[in-house]
Amino acid sequence: MKYDFETIIDRHNMDAYAVDGVGTSPGFSPDAPKDGFDFIPMWVADMNFPTVPSVQKEIIKRVNHPLFGYFAIRDEYYNSIIKWHNVFHHNTFLKKEHIGYENGVIGGVLTALNVLCSKGDNVLVHSPTYIGFTFPLLNNGYHLIYSPLVKDENNLYRMDFEDMEKKIIDNHIHVVIFCSPHNPTGRVWEKEEIEKALALFKKHHVFIISDEIWADIVLNNHKHIPTQSVNDYGRENTVALYAPSKTFNLAGLVGAYRIVYNDYLRDRINKEASLSHYNEINVLSMHGLIGAYKDEGYEWLKELREVLSHNINFGYNFIKDNFKGVKISKPQGTYMLLLDLEDYCLKNGITLDVVLKRGHDVGVGWQDARPFNMPYGIRMNLALPFSRVEEAFKRLKEYVF
Question: At what angle do helices 161-170 and 191-203 cross, to 10 degrees?
């Protein structure tokens, strides 16, 4: 490969919460390992790979100019986004005016909710549910109504359309947060599934807030279908949210963007987003996106997908072969594995806390998935050099399972 996905980089004391946050938040962050074990970060959803070199080059080029005063967003920023969506998502109708900046996807979700809802309204989400939705929405006065995803005969998570419709009707719901690809299950929705969901939303006049931050991280040749691309209802009634942060490991730079095609809806959301006067782009974040979306970024992403597919395939197969009683559905996107330990814990008479602690003790920094609305869940980040992934599963086999 042209790019380096194998070097183990020491992130300590470099502002990385994934390693420096260990043991700092009991009940949230992993405990520090026992003596004799180094820590393998598999909880925070960022990558342990260096970003594409063009990001650093672009930022350094800008930093070398010594003035950092007020600035306007460059056309190059918008053109980079337009080209990226054209190449990777076959979007030929995206224009500059459709794109709006947000400090983050979660902030963009709240911007859209504040336009589409009233405080106290019910909002439909699928379960398991990304923790980033749960607390910000509750803190801002919205009520989450959960529609559980169900596994089919192939152990694949699917939407339960009957349950969704019942929840929409019973709870007078007019907004859904649609996570595509889905976090934390890793489902990459098929076009037919999105069509069926949109038909249901159209029937009951439901707007869609589509979190597509994982759109670029698809595995094993799966294909992401943008919600707005499926039909006219999806195009005109969806606020879609994207960011280069997951794809290029840029969360620390801060910066996302929304795509809205409906003129009336876009005007209202632009106004709402502007009210705080703090939801504005940072100059280095702008140049970081421009660097990420250069031609080198296209090459880098293709290699990243291969690396992540290999890591996920290894982890999935290792669990199936070695961890009896642990259920897992193979993710089609993201770089996260979601383990269901209900049968394992009940059969062995132990709690999830015991299993989590056993992993933490030997340096496997996996994540408690109960806050994701999964009572016996553990979430694992496999965006690490393969040697680290291999070592983590070796320790789990020897000391935990």
Answer: 20
